[in-house]
Amino acid sequence: MTSPAATLVVPVWNRRELLEDLFHALACQTVRDFEVLVVDNGSSDGSAEWAERNGAKVVRMGANAGFCRAVNRGIRESRGRWIGIVNNDVRPAAGWLEALLRAADQSGAWFATGKILQAGPEGAIDGAFDALCRGACAWRVGSGRPDGPLYSEPRAIAIAPATAALFRRDLFDRVGLLDESFESYLEDVDLGLRCALQGLGGVYVPEAAAWHIGSATLGRWHPRTVRLIARNQALLVRKHYPASLLLRWAWPIVVAQSLWGLLAVRHGAGLAFLQGKFAAFANRSGVSRRPAAAPHLMPLLRASEDCILEFQRAAGFDWYWRMYFLLTGRVT
After folding, report:
1. End position of a domain, from candidates 170, 192, 212
2. pLDDT tens per residue, range 299-318
């Protein structure tokens, strides 16, 4: 059997109405050489059965195994030369897949992502691509900002959001699958770091538009969401930062993660933030540490932080990033 150009892996846990809308958008794609593989995390609303009736291959996890395990199972079961990871609350434009395939092939990139807009009439950016500061806190570039020329230029990137992105199948043979100890959130940042440390880069394709509802399952500041993000910020440090870098960048790490904790407190999730940090250090057997040499990681993170500073200066500073750059001495 001939392999399709792409397999689109869609992890789901209930919210069948979101899946139906996604399928309607996928039916309008200008490229038809793809398969849809739905990985069902124990839905109780008939999502798996509906997907099967509408032509998708369905893998049943039997229970809510988390985002990473579901995606990894989908990657293992896929047949495509390219593997797309697509959230169920994403609505790709008709030319989304065609634009990503074309740009990735022409550039020789290992992965590609497009311009992700917030669902709704405002036309705000949900995220273009991801960048990471020295303090191990990530920013989805452009999040919440009005769309415009700043986010309409293609560029090489290091980290693609696992919201709606395309990856070469061989990439996972080179760097491994998603790290399941992250469960959900920042697993794509971890993957991007592993790729970048091996010299495997991606491309941002602004013409490949998609709309994202965002945190449709739990909510952006739900205690479980905050707990997982807070824990995984610390896991990034544990996994990737050698001791020499921990000492050198102790202040940016403290600043970045403490400021994020203040945001959590502001949204009524301070306890969840503390629980997440405690969980990161209480479980010493969870994340598998990779021996990243400081000389390789330092320029990578400096370049990523420079990207954040570039976009913040161009569009106006968010409170979080203004305070981070002020306290770390990068702006006055």
Report:
1. 212
2. 999 999 999 999 999 999 99
Residue type, 158: A
Is residue 284 within 8 A of residue 181, CB to CB? The reply is no
Residues with Cβ < 8 Å from 107, sequence gap 6 or more? 156, 203
Q: Which of 179, 212, 245 is the last residue of a domain?
A: 212
Asked if the structure places residue 217 within a domain, the reply is no
Domain that holds residue 242: 223-327
Placement of tokens 């950016």 in the chain: 125
* Tokens (6 digits) for 245: 């870098």
How far is CA 43 from its chain centroid? 23
- Do the Cβ atoms of 46 and 24 come closer than 8 Å? no
Whether residues 297 and 163 share a domain: the answer is: no
Distance CA 300, CA 34 (A): 34
Q: Which residues pair with 11 in a beta bridge?
A: 39
pLDDT tens-digit map of 168-217: 999 999 999 999 999 999 999 999 999 999 999 999 999 999 999 876 45
- Whether residue 241 lies inside any domain: the answer is yes
- Contact yes or no for 40/14 (Cβ under 8 A): no
CA distances 294 to 232, 243, 246, 267, Å, are: 20, 9, 10, 35
The pTM score is 0.94
Cβ count within 10 A of residue 197: 17
- Total structural domains within the chain: 2
Kindly tell me if the per-residue pLDDT of 285 is higher than 60: no
Residues 204, 295 share a domain = no
Looking at the structure, tell me whether residues 261 and 208 fall in a common domain: no
Which of 326, 321, 311, 320 is CA-nearest to residue 145?
311
